[in-house]
From TrEMBL:
<feature type="region of interest" description="Disordered">
    <location>
        <begin position="129"/>
        <end position="189"/>
    </location>
</feature>
<dbReference type="InterPro" id="IPR008833">
    <property type="entry name" value="Surf2"/>
</dbReference>
<feature type="region of interest" description="Disordered">
    <location>
        <begin position="201"/>
        <end position="231"/>
    </location>
</feature>
<feature type="compositionally biased region" description="Basic and acidic residues">
    <location>
        <begin position="207"/>
        <end position="220"/>
    </location>
</feature>
<protein>
    <recommendedName>
        <fullName>Surfeit locus protein 2</fullName>
    </recommendedName>
</protein>
<feature type="compositionally biased region" description="Basic and acidic residues">
    <location>
        <begin position="129"/>
        <end position="167"/>
    </location>
</feature>
<dbReference type="Pfam" id="PF05477">
    <property type="entry name" value="SURF2"/>
</dbReference>
Length: 231
């Protein structure tokens, strides 16, 4: 590669050093295997280069992708939690969350430090620590608690409906009693008026101021009443 006649090398490789981002060097440095005449070969990517170009190449996009593919193939952490996306070579799919991300150390780092991934990981580790029988028992206990809560809610609802029904009955009874009392008061008032009317005072016969003894009156020719005739 780039050798002059006579075996001398005039290779001057310039690799772009990217700006430091989150997840920088997440997978560490590549492994270089020495070759003849001062050259080296990157074990992860198979790329050959001169000794002085190793540092710049280690930060290049080509090298970083090679490290990801190598770790993915060997199932090395944290790439053991990912698979190659079947649709795109430039993407990875998380086995834990099912989320598809870009195949870069930055996006891998962001995903494995996100809340969704950490919550799923915590749940998975907890399930591993708990035996199957204990896990089933825990699930049954959870189901029993749910049933008990639903039963308590039903009882509370029935109790409230019963109390509301009693209140309505009591209210209706009070209204009926009020109407009955009003009717009784009206009836008593009518009886009192009738009694007062019956008890109106009348003077005894022969004791009236007009000397009317209650006898038969005679009417004279003028049409005026005369003095009653005594029997």
């Amino acid at each position: 590669m780039g050798k002059k006649e006579g075996g001398e090398s005039n290779e001057e490789e310039n690799y772009t050093v990217t700006k430091v981002k989150e997840g920088h060097n997440l997978l560490g440095s590549p492994t270089f295997k020495p070759l003849d005449i001062g050259r080296f070969k990157c074990v992860e990517t198979g790329h050959e280069l001169l000794a002085h170009a190793r540092d710049s190449y280690a930060q290049s996009k080509h090298c970083r992708l090679g490290l990801i593919d190598s770790a993915l193939a060997k199932k090395k952490p944290p790439l053991n939690m990912f698979i190659q996306d079947p649709v795109s070579r430039s993407k990875l799919k998380c086995k834990l969350t099912g989320v598809t991300i870009n195949k870069t150390e930055e996006h891998i780092w962001k995903h494995i430090n996100g809340k969704r991934f950490l919550n799923k990981l915590e749940k998975m580790e907890a399930e591993k620590e708990i035996p199957n029988g204990a896990l089933e028992k825990k699930g049954e206990e959870k189901e029993e608690k749910k049933k008990k809560k639903n039963k308590d809610d039903d009882l509370k609802k029935k109790k409230k409906n019963k109390e509301d029904g009693l209140k309505n009955v009591k209210k209706k009874k009070q209204e009926e009693n009020g109407m009955f009392i009003a009717e009784m008061e009206d009836s008593i008032g009518n009886d009192v008026d009738l009694e007062e009317e019956n008890e109106f005072w009348m003077p005894p016969v022969g004791d009236r101021w007009d000397h009317d003894d209650g006898g038969v009156r005679e009417i004279d020719g003028t049409g005026e009443e005369g003095i009653s005739l005594s029997s």
